[in-house]
Amino acid sequence: MSKLIYILNGPNLNLLGQRQPEIYGRGTLADVETDCTTLGKDLGLEIRLLQSNHEGQIVDWIHEARDAAAGIIINPAAFTHTSVALLDALNTFDGPVLEVHISNVHKRESFRQHSYVSLRADGVIAGCGLQGYALALRRMAVLTEAKEA
Ligand code: CA2
């Protein structure tokens, strides 16, 4: 049976593909969902991709994942740099956590170079565009021992 992986996305990522293509590319979250669903089938992983502009909603999904999911891939967006609440929630999750950033946050403003979520993440992918989600899913396959990636 496939293991379920939550792919959580934070504020403004619903606008992917509509604004700032020079930073975030032209693809949408729906494209990410399609690509990861297809790849997940090869890897023996089922994905559930979610996005919210509300911190508490993401905390609630992390709590839900505690029973439902084998791993979490998260792009917390701006909450990366501000949210102790997301860090605390992720610390209640026992499985692997991978943090994804579409842009290379280390090449950008200094406030983007601190991540609360990185204190919990088992791995971080930044600056690989939307491909970063697929890279994280391949790594998740190894970490959850679903199938060799
Ligand atoms: O590079 C990333 O993935 C970020 O997590 C994106 C966040 C930013 O605050 C982080 O520092 C790095 C911003 C997401 C905003 O998404 C937009 C998408 C399309 C148009 C405008 C914003």
Task: Give a description of the structure.
The protein is built from five helices and five strands. By secondary structure, the protein is an alpha/beta fold. Strands 2-1-3-4-5 form a five-stranded parallel beta sheet, sandwiched between helices. The protein is globular. The site of ligand CA2 has 16 residues, from loops.
Provide a short characterization of the protein structure:
The chain is an alpha/beta fold. Helix content is 36%, strand content 19%. The protein has a single domain, classed as Dehydroquinase, class II (Rossmann fold).
Shape: globular
Assembly classification = single chain
Widest sheet: strand ordering: 2-1-3-4-5
State the end-to-end distance. 17 Å
| CATH homologous superfamily annotation | Dehydroquinase, class II
* Average of pLDDT: 96
Please write the string of helix (H) and strand (E) elements. Answer: EHHEHEHEEH
| Unreliable parts | none
Tell me the CATH topology: Rossmann fold
Overall tally of domains: 1
Indicate the CATH class.
Alpha Beta
Number of helices: 5
Strand content: 15-25%
Heterogens:
ligand CA2
Q: Decide which structural class fits the backbone.
A: alpha/beta
Largest beta-sheet characterization: 5 strands, parallel
As a percent range, the share of helical residues equals 25-40%
- What is the CATH architecture assignment? 3-Layer(aba) Sandwich
Provide tags for this entry.
alpha/beta, binds ligand CA2, globular, Rossmann fold, 5-stranded parallel beta sheet, 5 helices, 149 residues
